[in-house]
Predict the structure of DoxX family membrane protein.
Amino acid sequence: MSAYDRRDLGLLLLRLGAGGVLAAHGTQKLFGWFGGHGIEGTGQFMESIGYRPGKASATAAGLAEAGGGTLLALGLATPLAGAAAAGGMAGASAVHAPNGFFAQEGGYETAATLGLAAAGLAVTGPGRLSLDHAMGHFFDRGWMVPTALAATAAVTALVVGARQRRLDKPEKDEQFDGQEPLFEE
């Protein structure tokens, strides 16, 4: 087996592993499969952790994971799939970050690993054992990689930033010890 063949096989295994895990987590959110809570339950959870509106946030997270994961596993539209999944995992990492790194403490370890794998696949491409390769890389052009990653980074920064501002607001209001603030935000 040549190095080029090993690279393609390695990318296939990485795509199947990361994409499969992402797709499974996304279907938990969207359909309640694999012990998940579906859109309703996930939407309520999203609201409770500061992602609003909850149902829209649950749908976006579910689509990023299920759609991005499935496309990564297939090796189809790899720049978009990897960027979408990485963005979803950045949002999940923001939720878990206060718990530290390790997953057994509720940390961001799993979300960060999946997000970095997805981003890495977006950058490296899917390899020859993929639908992108079979279709002549129609959905996997060089310009798509920075475009998809930049757009996803911008949207993710806005969404995670809005969540953080919501979470910080009660702390700001507490500093007035019951007094009315002089300026409304």
